[in-house]
Amino acid sequence: xxxxxxxxxxVGLAAAPAVSHAATVVIGVPGxxxxxxxxxxxxxxxxxxxxxxxxxxxxxTTELVGAxxxxxxxxxxxxxxxxxxxxxxxxxxxxxxxxxxxxQVTASQNICTTRDTVELTGLTEVAQLADPTMAxxxxxxxxxxxxxxxxxxxxxxxxxxxxxxxSYGYDETMMLLTMEEDVAMAGLDVAMATGRPMVFYCYAPxxxxxxxxxxKLEEPPHDPSAWxxxxxxxxxxxxxxxxxxxxxxxxxxxxxxxxxxxxxxxxVAAFLNKVTIDAETAQAMSYAIDVERRDPADVAAEWIxxxxxxxxxxxx
Amino acid sequence: MIRVLAxxxxxxxxxxxxxxxxxxxxxxxxxxxDPRQAARYYQMHGSxxxxxxxxxxxxxxxxxxxxxxxxxxxxxxxxxxxxxxxIRYGIGVGRDGFGWAGxxxxxxxxxxxxxxxPAEMVARDPEAAKWANGMPGGPENPLGARALYLYEDGRxxxxxxxGTHQPWSIGLDISSGCIRMNNDDVIDLYNRVxxxxxxxxxxSGAALYRGV
Lengths: 316, 212
Prior knowledge:
The structure holds two protein chains of two kinds. Chain A is an alpha+beta fold. In chain A, 46% of the residues lie in helices and 19% in strands. Chain A folds into two domains: 2-106 and 252-314, D-Maltodextrin-Binding Protein, domain 2 (3-Layer(aba) Sandwich); 107-241, Glycine betaine-binding periplasmic protein, domain 2 (D-Maltodextrin-Binding Protein, domain 2, 3-Layer(aba) Sandwich), CATH 3.40.190.100. In chain A, the strands form three sheets. In chain A, strands 3, 4, 5, 8, 9 and 10 form a six-stranded antiparallel beta sheet that branches. A two-stranded parallel sheet of chain A has the order 1-2. A two-stranded parallel ribbon of chain A has the order 6-7. At the A-B interface, α6 and α9 of A face α1 of B.
């Protein structure tokens, strides 16, 4: 399968040489704020400094990795690990179609609640959610179980959160909700406005930590020897076999791109290998765009102007 | 603030039915708010309880002004405004909830909308059967003074935000689906909202009654 796809791609390249590929670089844009910030930022720098046209294409993160493998998209602005480690292991490596840029940004993934909830319920640890009495604080529909948002439909973290809920046992006491992030964040806004208890999957960097007083729940430290989360593709019984009643592994994200960019657009590949946008910058820019409602292009342009030295290093 | 919330939640835990409750300042207790009490309250005060009346509240959000957020659990509809504020309106929701949460938009608006009862209502309710072919807009029409039709991907969802000829019912889970507001409020909302406005229905309360 892979060989036939590659063969087709090579025929295509031979018929239409590198220039068309290098002239337009497609950046996938997963649906969360910091990835959108990075996509806009690198797109603008590439257009201004590298003479390529950057096209942004909204797409779910897991699907995006597959699209890079198929040659449909060139860049993933924010690939999270360990969330996609199985896919990365399959597609990267010496002959792989996916290359990870070297700079890793430290991120975090947790279960969060609000400060009001902590003071009202005494909830401080994830494990407490398996207690039916604690779970009742989060019941809004009267079915005797609480509700917890565990992520968007397309996020790589969502099946892992499902596995964690099962491992902790709160899949029995809480309804696990998957839904677009905007709905969950509006729910957080309302919880803050009314003081209603709320608990939810959270990740950083994210503007919500600047917008609201959000508290990360405590968990046993991550133990690699005890952690086991397979994907549904690896084992149909992945959920029942999961062992994940502990903190996430140290989470990071990084740029990733189609390996063939090194040949078709070496200046772009070299640039991607140097780009570093730290978590604080991503979160501050996300706040400016998502909360202050500033134009992403303006925010990116402002940052580029204020960081000319850094940009010139990246595009050397 | 926290103490009051503790009182609410303690009552909720004790009463799994999760009935709407309002605060009685005379007895300083939270009491169930059912249709009988709601009708009596309205008769005595000429309005719904204070928390369900239209008011500007502090509301920190990343949603842009003009977005509607519907909280079927607390019976509030928020219209996001500038500077981290929102106009909060009291709403009534259906006895059976909506059965969905998510993001839709205002597809169109109508003044004094015509109401056509659904077939199942015609079958079970002789009053509705009289209007099987549609009831003209007016004070007796259950859709009230205005309706905002909610669309998803350009298609009508069958859900509406509308007025009511039973203003005492705001704050309750009664009657058929949709989101009800008193007529003054739905006219106010109608005048502030344009077609295309984003509408977020939260994953709580009535939205979950049939599962999301």
